[in-house]
Write a structure and sequence with these properties.
The protein is α/β, with parallel strands linked by helices and 386 residues long. It has 14 helices and 16 strands. It folds into two domains: 196 residues, Rossmann fold; 180 residues, Glycogen Phosphorylase B (Rossmann fold). Helix 11 links the parallel strand 14 and strand 15. The radius of gyration is 22 Å and the shape is globular.
Length: 386
């Protein structure tokens, strides 16, 4: 099949959706299919086709991660698509590039698959504030209604999408397909003991400390302040319990200040933004992954951590409650006290017990590799083209 994947940002940018699309492209290509990525690039003034990716000129959106917003119309882009002769178009975002994808599919008479990756209600505050936010939401819902109603199949990694689409006036079936993990890259065995010890030494983390790891955007929607409060109330003066926070974002400075004000300057470590190639090492040097966010569809960071073998310690989220198998791939908490008790429980494990737990998690997560995801989505493509 000739498969065109539309996404608003692609490499060298890094986020969960980009990782998802990159893995999907690689697996589909390995299976013998032709894949074309269509994306926006704010650093270009003209379209460019390179290594199977059409990069479209775009306006830089400083408030949205610095990504680009491309025009939904382009003759040059249209020529690239027609030359590729897609059998199917699969959009992974909802803006200029993806709108072009929907409109092009209608012209060519081919199916559109739409994967909703993001709960936009939780991100409106970055772009629109004040009284007009409600009006803007209503307009955006109508826009999503247009995209979804013109799509042949709806996919999402989370059942949250069902309610979101319903709010937008869409009552179509949604295929809930879990995100995949790059189990080859996120593999504990890729690192030797000296590398793991060095990372801890560089971060001033004791070798025998129980280390929690969070990786993600440092913004309000991630509830990192929740984690800091739990550590301040329960582990401030206990050098056995440390927390490593990896990432950057609008709340980075405020969170560093909060950690210092809470007396956590020696036990909570901010690594800042790291190259994605360094993230597997961070997970491998840790003992568990932790997040209190309630805004995730299906956290790629959490899955990557579990692929390495870290138990996920995550806050209860009704629609996502099956994403972590409680007691098998991690633990779910509802309150700050429950989170603290889970961390203390992990702290009571012997070294061999913790290693066995990690080994078991790695084994379970092997079933969520990118090839398995590609096979499920390919079945949807085939069904849609019949």
């Amino acid at each position: 099949m000739n498969i065109a994947l539309f996404i608003e940002a692609y490499h060298p940018y890094v986020n969960g959706v980009i990782t998802h699309v990159s893995m999907l492209k690689e697996s589909l290509t390995k299976m013998g299919h032709n894949v074309l990525i269509v994306t926006a690039d704010p650093n270009l003034r003209h379209h460019k086709l390179e290594n199977g990716v059409v990069y479209c000129p775009a306006v830089k959106m400083k408030k949205i991660y610095g990504y680009g917003l491309a025009s939904p119309k382009s003759r040059t882009r249209d020529k690239y698509l027609r030359a590729f002769k897609p059998d199917i178009i699969h959009i992974h975002n909802e803006f200029g590039v993806s709108l072009f994808g929907v409109q092009t599919a209608k012209k060519l008479g081919i199916p559109v698959i739409y994967t909703l990756h993001t709960m936009y209600d939780d991100y409106f505050h970055y772009v629109i504030r004040g009284r007009i936010q409600k009006v803007a939401k209503n307009i955006f819902y109508k826009y999503i209604h247009y995209i979804a109603s013109n799509s042949d199949v709806l996919i999402s990694p989370s059942a949250k999408a069902i309610d979101f689409f319903a709010e937008c006036g869409i009552k179509k079936h949604v295929d809930v397909i879990p995100n995949a993990i790059d189990t080859a890259t996120f593999n504990y065995c890729n690192f030797n003991k000296d590398e793991l010890l060095k990372l801890r030494n560089d971060m001033n983390i004791p070798q025998d400390a129980l280390l929690g790891v969070f990786v993600g955007r440092l913004g309000a929607e991630k509830s990192i302040d929740y984690l800091l409060n739990v550590f301040a109330k329960n582990f401030k003066d206990n050098d056995k319990y440390h927390l490593l926070i990896v990432g950057d974002g609008p709340d980075a400075e405020a969170l560093r200040t909060m950690a210092n004000d809470l007396g956590l300057d020696k036990t909570v470590h901010f690594a800042g933004k790291l190259d994605h190639s360094q993230i597997p090492l961070c997970y491998s040097a840790g003992d568990y992954y932790v997040s209190a966010s309630l805004t995730e569809m299906m956290s790629i960071s959490m899955l990557e951590a579990m692929a390495v073998g870290l138990p996920a310690v995550v806050r209860f989220d009704e629609k996502n409650k099956t994403q972590v198998k409680d007691g098998k791939t991690g633990f779910i908490f509802k309150t700050e006290d429950e989170m603290a008790e889970i961390i203390k429980k992990l702290g009571s494990y012997s070294e061999s017990e913790l290693e066995e737990f990690k080994r078991s998690i790695r084994e379970i997560m092997q079933e969520q590799g990118p090839d398995q995801l590609a096979k499920r989505i390919l079945d949807i493509y085939i069904g849609a083209t019949k």
